[in-house]
């Protein structure tokens, strides 16, 4: 079923789209490639990935059984609830991804076997949520109270409701969702359906004509039924949060590519929220020292909480701006391994619903990343390894940064990422980067050639980029 806003959809502002399209043209990629890229980005990956915390989990086999039991119970509960509607979700089977990544357990989203369009698409009870919340919903989250912007005036607890994302961010909090839908349907994107857990007036409160959250309730506001494509996955927050950590596959691979060893001094320069940091600690079995930076104190507090929850004992977190290193505290050429998972434009996040980033914002990341990379090179020991990664798809933040690094720092050498080179594509050639060098890069993004299997888990990830460098003596 098509909705009014599905034709000629916009994913970026016109200026940003034009800038990105021209950028890819520099490496011989035409408009057709760009359109396929946008289509791929707009869809949520079909796979869920969980990282097993090896500090606490016994072995991969036990973990697979544990997660499969969680899936069995979750889908049994959902299917019992949907029995009267004639809708059934097959229970997915989970598995260890690879012998090289035995901490990574994967399973597919489930697709309903019966599509009840009259229930799914024609409910008069509507909810509007923000784009960030919508992206989380597509990755398996329920809808928490803060993500709800607007509800129908008649909305009551246990209503089955249609859920829409506010693409332009113009819907007023607490407003009438039906009224906004009539006026602004082209700025809304249908997400799926779910059960409302509270009455509207329990969520919103009217005082002096200003609508705002009542503050009476917290937590989950809408339990997801199914997404627009008929798919469903149980929310991760019902799993054991100490043993299993939801993490995108490229992020899991990224820590493996750095290949830290027990006893080494390791630096994570842009560490929040801490997924890769704690993974590095698990890889070395808490035997070594990991220094983690972030410039925002609240993020460091949350990282400390995560480290405690995951039994991570070798990490020290510091409020530090990675562009402004105090070399009286951190000696030059002192770290064996450095991870620079840099702040970036994050255009690889899927599903792409709408991103209002402008061209100036896009361009600003390049210089910021270079300031961090300059410090990383200075802090890295001769003989040490550095990984530079981003969760974006732009050439300027990826291949062109690699080219700049190699031209500026002659002691840096690109190295092979085997046996962890799982990406769908290698990097693009660009000025200063030849074919042999580009093949050493991992670009988690399909090339959209005829032989690409877009359903394969290594093609169906978030957009991501990984490069690895050796600092020679």
Automatic annotation (TrEMBL):
<dbReference type="GO" id="GO:0008173">
    <property type="term" value="F:RNA methyltransferase activity"/>
</dbReference>
<dbReference type="Pfam" id="PF01189">
    <property type="entry name" value="Methyltr_RsmB-F"/>
</dbReference>
<dbReference type="GO" id="GO:0003723">
    <property type="term" value="F:RNA binding"/>
</dbReference>
<dbReference type="InterPro" id="IPR001678">
    <property type="entry name" value="MeTrfase_RsmB-F_NOP2_dom"/>
</dbReference>
<dbReference type="InterPro" id="IPR049560">
    <property type="entry name" value="MeTrfase_RsmB-F_NOP2_cat"/>
</dbReference>
<dbReference type="InterPro" id="IPR023267">
    <property type="entry name" value="RCMT"/>
</dbReference>
<feature type="binding site">
    <location>
        <position position="341"/>
    </location>
    <ligand>
        <name>S-adenosyl-L-methionine</name>
    </ligand>
</feature>
<keyword id="KW-0694">RNA-binding</keyword>
<keyword id="KW-0808">Transferase</keyword>
<keyword id="KW-0489">Methyltransferase</keyword>
<dbReference type="GO" id="GO:0001510">
    <property type="term" value="P:RNA methylation"/>
</dbReference>
<feature type="binding site">
    <location>
        <position position="321"/>
    </location>
    <ligand>
        <name>S-adenosyl-L-methionine</name>
    </ligand>
</feature>
<dbReference type="InterPro" id="IPR036974">
    <property type="entry name" value="PUA_sf"/>
</dbReference>
<keyword id="KW-0949">S-adenosyl-L-methionine</keyword>
<comment type="similarity">
    <text>Belongs to the class I-like SAM-binding methyltransferase superfamily. RsmB/NOP family.</text>
</comment>
<feature type="active site" description="Nucleophile">
    <location>
        <position position="391"/>
    </location>
</feature>
<feature type="binding site">
    <location>
        <begin position="270"/>
        <end position="276"/>
    </location>
    <ligand>
        <name>S-adenosyl-L-methionine</name>
    </ligand>
</feature>
<dbReference type="InterPro" id="IPR018314">
    <property type="entry name" value="RsmB/NOL1/NOP2-like_CS"/>
</dbReference>
<protein>
    <recommendedName>
        <fullName>SAM-dependent MTase RsmB/NOP-type domain-containing protein</fullName>
    </recommendedName>
</protein>
<feature type="binding site">
    <location>
        <position position="294"/>
    </location>
    <ligand>
        <name>S-adenosyl-L-methionine</name>
    </ligand>
</feature>
<feature type="domain" description="SAM-dependent MTase RsmB/NOP-type">
    <location>
        <begin position="171"/>
        <end position="472"/>
    </location>
</feature>
<dbReference type="InterPro" id="IPR015947">
    <property type="entry name" value="PUA-like_sf"/>
</dbReference>
<dbReference type="InterPro" id="IPR029063">
    <property type="entry name" value="SAM-dependent_MTases_sf"/>
</dbReference>
